Amino acid sequence: MMTMHQLIAKLSVSKTSIYEWIKTSGFPAPYKFGSASRWKESEVNDWIEARRNAA
């Protein structure tokens, strides 16, 4: 499970961009653990691969 900081580092984008992608580009929504948000790395990698294949 990835944190927001790990996503920002992996994708080289802002937190705002990630939440915009969730709304508009099918980026995986986070899993909530209390107030913490976490993303499955496999889902993020699948999204990245799908974007590469679509280009």
UniProtKB/TrEMBL annotation:
Give the Gene3D superfamilies listed for this entry.
1.10.238.160
What InterPro entries would the database entry show?
Answer: AlpA, DNA-bd_dom_put_sf
Q: Which SUPFAM superfamilies match?
A: Putative DNA-binding domain
Highest taxon of the source?
Answer: Bacteria
Pfam family, any one: Phage_AlpA
Q: What is this protein called?
A: AlpA family phage regulatory protein
